[in-house]
Amino acid sequence: MSNNPFPPNPYSPNPHAAGNFQGSGNAANVADAVSAPAISLIVVSLICIVCVLIALGADAFLVFSGIAERMRENNAGIDKETQITIRVIGALVIFAINSVILFAAIRMKSLRSYPLALTGAILAAIPCISPCYFIGIPFGIWAIVVLMRPEVKQAFH
User: Fold this and answer.
1) Domain ranges of the chain
2) What pTM did the predictor assign?
3) Which residues, at least 6 apart from 114, have a Cβ–Cβ distance to it below 8 Å?
4) Is 118 in contact with 125 (CB distance < 8 Å)?
């Protein structure tokens, strides 16, 4: 029998639970916890990058095929060249942001560059610039939550 007069706390963390990083396999547990949100960000950012490349290809087709010259001005009075220029600049910005997120997620998966990993997770959680717009937000938040754990921060050092 134990000398402890108090019963065990049912709300104390289980040292054998999947989310608990205490114990002998600390580095392996942290790597497992970081792996899932990192892979999610990699997949979603790659999907977004492919979509942006397709959109840029479509805009290039419009310009080089001459279809852009036959496009009518929209109701706002913006000419066709300005419309395509705005779309191309927007696509390049989204491409650049998703490239940062992709690179940050790859570094996060290998437990390197904590500031970059956190930056990529934050970028993924921002609406309208995250990978595939709103699809990346939950993965960005998930990555932020995992990255803010003290044992995860320690594993990056």
Assistant:
1) 32-156
2) 0.75
3) 147, 153, 156, 157
4) no
